[in-house]
Amino acid sequence: MSTLTLDRAPEARRAEPRGQVTFARVLRSEWIKMRTLRSTFWTMLAAVVALIGFGILFGAVDANRWPHMSAHEKATFDPIGTSLQGFFLAQLAIGVLGVLMISGEYATGMIRASLSAVPRRLPVLWAKAGLYAVVTWVLMTAGSLIAFLSGQALLSSRHIGASLSDPGAVRMVLGTGLYLTVVALLGVAVGALVRNTAGGIATVFGLLLVLPALAEALPSSWADHINQYLPSNAGQSLTALHHEAHTLAPWPGFLVFCAYAVAALAGAAVLLKRHDA
């Protein structure tokens, strides 16, 4: 080996990217953590079962009730929404797991190791949020499609089923997956903001369930203007067949819901960057 080769060897070793922290490696690390946690499997399974199971259940119940329904009930019956009602329970499981994705690391102290390995910090948050959003979108979109097809198979016995070619059907099926994906992002953001599992879960439940109930107690002149801009009400407009009075149109409503999630993630990023773990 020549002297020139020896002189260049340390420089070559320094140039090796073996220990470099890249976003791809952060993603791989977060994926290993997510898929090896039992809570991930069981919570996602619960969400899928709720989405599909309630679609089948409501489809069977309404098919049996159809001959006994009043004329008004038949006129306002929504076969598509009936088979997708399981999203209401699925959103709770998705929101809880989103909180656990990051609050669990604060509870165990593992967040310090994660942030020590990734000194820039923010890639950890983006990796957690991005991975969970992709997994949620894939599973919940598939689940909503299965729920729709299963529910319509039961309703078709009374000739009241719908198909994907019906107006609004594709939007509602895909919208259910999109809505639950944004719920996932909101859960991760709240977990990063609150840094406490119980507090994070309570906050998510409050945003999705309690706020709409409290707003209903307001005078109608106020409630009509406020309700449509609440997070869950705005997001769920994408899963509604008809645009009712005092509600946002489907896509504008969904964009409002996305804005809540983006604002929460931005706040979580600022907090993560400025404060110690």
From TrEMBL:
Keyword line: Membrane, Transmembrane, Transmembrane helix
Spans traversing the lipid bilayer: 41-61, 87-108, 129-149, 169-194, 201-222, 251-272
Superkingdom of the source species: Bacteria
Keyword Membrane set for record: yes
Protein name (record): ABC-type transport system involved in multi-copper enzyme maturation, permease component
Organism expressing this protein natively: Actinacidiphila alni
